[in-house]
Amino acid sequence: MRILLFLLLVSIPFQSHADNIADCEVVIMEKYNPEDNKQTMEVASFHPAINFIESIYNEDKEIIRTINGFKIRALMCRRMNVIPKRIDYPILKSGIPLILSQNFDSSTSGITKIYYKNRKFNYTYSGPNLSDRDIEKMKININFFNSQSHDFSEKEKNK
After folding, report:
1. How many helices (DSSP H) and strands (DSSP E) are in the chain?
2. pTM for the full model?
3. Angle at CA 90, nearest 5°, toward 98 and 147?
4. DSSP character for 106?
5. Which residue ranges make up each domain of the chain?
6. How does DSSP classify residue 94?
7. Which long-range contacts (CB under 8 A, 24 or more apart) does 17-21 make?
8. CA 113 – CA 82 distance, rounded (Å)
9. What contacts 36, CB < 8 A, 6 or more positions away?
10. Could you tell me if 91 and 55 are in contact, meaning their C-beta atoms sit under 8 angstroms apart?
């Protein structure tokens, strides 16, 4: 399966990084204690997401939820279009927030974050104004995510 996924990634043309899962990273928060400071800090670190994504879409695997003992906090993907797609649902169903941007290092790029809170999938968007068509796509896809089966409500009740 891993070889098949790798071949799929390699066969995607470079310009289409818009939807290339190879252009994703998982975010973890590591504890860091500088020698000159007695206070521990949390520092974000970014790791390749290929194994995490493979575990999401491969029903024979258990979903990877940690890296080096640290909980995965989000999946960040570069895409030309920051509107989530229906194929993203398995990622969201894992409980890991999905963050999309054309360029995370640019202050002029759009950023969409999709996450589960208050018994439903929500999103935040910042960046250049979305077109009416993109706003409608966003609403349709968020409604689609919310119409799918998952056990998040039960997990929230048990907190």
Report:
1. 5, 7
2. 0.79
3. 95
4. -
5. 11-148
6. T
7. 17/78, 17/79, 17/80, 18/78, 18/79, 18/80, 18/81, 19/79, 19/80, 19/85, 21/49, 21/50, 21/53, 21/77
8. 9
9. none
10. no
